[in-house]
């Protein structure tokens, strides 16, 4: 599922380390790789990303001393990125590898123009 041919050996090692890390998914402790494979078996994978506004704290914002600090707080949250697969947060490295493998698999499934012309 994870194509790592385009990665350097160091990036491949980081990807494997990230995929082998164990997390708690609804009470079950399992590696990220196994969880993503079970999500893929259950249906199509939906990749998305979002900014850090999910971490916004109104109490923290209101306690900041000036408008400049408040603007910096909002800018910092908007600069932060989160990556998701089927509403589960994943590291950016895993998100990019999944996106690359999904693109490659969709390219393989698409018929070539010559195959379309011969089928007519």
Polypeptide structure, described:
With 120 residues, the chain is an alpha+beta fold. The chain has helices at residues 9-20, 32-42, 58-63, 67-79, 92-109, 113-119; strands at 22-25, 28-31, 47-51, 81-85, 88-90. The strands form 2 sheets. Strands 3-4-5 form a 3-stranded antiparallel β-sheet. It has a two-stranded antiparallel ribbon with strand order 1-2. A hairpin with a 2-residue loop joins strand 4 (81-85) and strand 5. It is elongated. The chain starts with 8 loop residues before the first helix and ends with a helix. Residues 115-120 have low confidence and may be disordered.
Distinctive features:
single chain, 120 residues, alpha+beta, three-stranded antiparallel sheet, two-stranded antiparallel sheet, 6 helices, 18% strand, elongated, disordered C terminus
Instruction: Specify the structural class.
Output: alpha+beta
Largest sheet data = 3 strands, antiparallel
User: What is the H/E string?
Assistant: HEEHEHHEEHH
Catalogue the unreliable spans: 115-120
SS field, number of helical segments? 6
Query: How many DSSP-defined strands?
Result: 5
Q: What do the pLDDT scores average to?
A: 86
Strand content: 15-25%
**Any idea what the shape is?**
elongated
Radius of gyration: 20 Å
What level of helicity do the residues show?
55-70%
Task: Report strand order across the widest sheet.
Answer: 3-4-5
Alpha-carbon distance between the two ends = 33 Å
């Amino acid at each position: 599922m994870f194509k790592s041919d385009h990665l350097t050996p160091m990036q491949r090692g980081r990807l494997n380390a990230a995929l082998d890390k164990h997390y708690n998914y609804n009470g079950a402790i399992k590696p990220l790789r196994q969880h993503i494979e079970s999500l893929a078996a259950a249906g199509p994978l939906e990749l998305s990303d979002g900014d850090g506004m999910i971490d916004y704290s109104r109490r923290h914002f209101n306690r900041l001393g000036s408008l400049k600090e408040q603007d910096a707080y909002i800018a910092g949250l908007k600069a932060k990125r989160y990556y998701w697969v089927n509403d589960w947060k994943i590291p950016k490295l895993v998100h990019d590898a999944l996106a690359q493998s999904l693109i490659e698999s969709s390219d393989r499934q698409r018929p070539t123009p010559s195959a379309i012309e011969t089928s007519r």
